[in-house]
Please model this.
Amino acid sequence: MKADRILGAGFVLLGFAMIWLMYRLAAPSLGQGDPGPAVLPAALGILFVLLGGILAIRRVAPSPPAVEAGAGENADTATLIPAEPALFSIIHLVNFCAYVALFEKAGFSLSTFVFLSIAIFLFGPRTVRSAIVAILAAAVVTFVVGTGLRVLVGVPLPGVFLG
Amino acid sequence: MLELFFINLGQLLSLDTLAIMLGGLLVGLFFGALPGLSATMAVALLLPVTFAMQPDVAIAMLVATYIGGITGGLVSATLLRIPGTPSSIATTFDAYPLARNGEATKALATGMIASAVGGLMSLVVLVAFAPALTRLAIRFGAHEFTALTLAALMLVVVLAQANVVKGLLSATLGLAIATVGFAPIGGAQRFTFGSIDLMAGVGIVPFMVGLFAISEMIRQTVEPSLRIKPNFDIRGSGVRLAEFVGNGWNMLRSGVIGIAIGILPGIGGSASNLVAYGAARQASKTPERFGKGALEGIYASETANNASVGGALLPLITLGIPGDGVTAVLIGGFTIHGLQPGPLLFRNEPDLIGMIYAAFFLATVLLLVIQLATIKLFPRVLLVPRRFLLPVLVVLMVVGTYASGNRLFEVWLMLGFGVLGYGMERYGFPLGPMVLGFVLGPIFETNMRRAMMYSNGDLTDFVSRPISAGLLFAAVALLAYGVISLVRQRRVVATS
Model:
């Protein structure tokens, strides 16, 4: 498989990088017999080079037929959920990254409310009604999770409204 | 000891004590189910609450919280593929596919019953063999721990579903990630690139949540998925007696693995569920069904992780050695209430030991009863529309991961591990060996360096000590078995 060759080559490079970094590591030995802190990472680097090399150059045998998990006895209740369109997948990723980036700066409540509103709206039917539902659901979840964890459990979350 | 056990059991069967234990169990279950909140936090949180209680009631509550915390991971692992604790990582492998297949109730019930069996098995061992087993455990020195971690890694690598090369690469990656940060001995910085955040190393919560839960979120977003309505039209829990009896050996083996690993300080439930899962797959007549909803996998994982609870209590009670974070907090709680764990405890305070055993038994039974009584409530979470479920789960994961270290960096790490986990599964790299490599990495390195220092660099000590030699032989034999299996498999495919 082509992917295996690329991944194998990547592991070889990773292995060489680890060996080089550990070669440069200056750490005193802690006593007679101590192999030092560089030995394990360097040994792992060598393993990456060897195993990555095998993965990259070996003749690929087809995989044995896999038994897929089907819907079984409950097939009649199965619903196929299509993948999100590529554009929406990117928006979900941006939304998530923005959420994490703003988590401390804007505080838990504001960042979570905005993230949930956008995510629930995008995963739903994307109508005006669903936008209102998304905003309401986001407000309720933000309040319950924030206040519950901050007040009841004592989790130190930043910027919890009413917490 | 058996007489003391029954006397204490009778004392605990009062309404007040049962209610307090129930409170501890529920708090433990809640903390165990959410990633970032752990059994350690639950016990630590309830410790001040116990100050005003009688010692026996306080100990009963702490033990109940501990057991609830270890078992709590089952529900989120089964329904959402979120291992609330490292002890339930292997549970996600089969319980989650079974739940997605509409059999959530059965998957949960199987796990709950297996948990109770594992807990009770370890209790029997605890009552009957505590001093003898602990004497054996303290014979494990640095050489033996080094060999044991290698053997455990090989077992999981070889028995993983992928081929040996990918399994070894996965384990190596887990070990490599565990080396980031300060070295466990000496404190040298490795792979930190000057980043203060990386100096603390990689936490287990972002690693675990990212690899399993975030990767699943990514999969459900970018790939089409099949959603099956949970089947509620079943009588009872859906677990058949024949299935339970048929897994008798599996549970016995997994229980022994759980107890044996639990006794050894520092390893515990995180490793025992993966090792027991690997052993069950090896012993199964239908190993190809593992990872796709095999009941044997659930029985193995859940029996082992609860059996390791009793195992972990062995060195704690008899030697005063806490095996992990939660038992360290527990020992603090015991000490506050006048119980001084250690070799003299059996002579000085046999009554309180009987109380621990009785609380353990009662908490395990109480937990099973509560869980089975409410079993049809939990799968209803799968009826929540996907557009609400996925974003809310992401929020819980972000909050849990942030709370685990109070660092936003860990949340970014979680996202990174999510992408890594998704990619690894997509290209056939098993996640089990990687997790085990990550968990065992620091234990392996610390003991390997200690062993080398004790022996003045003489490697022959690893093979001249009988337990270490036996474990190393097992590791080599497992690797040889894996390579031979791979060659055979390739020959069969080539000829067909």
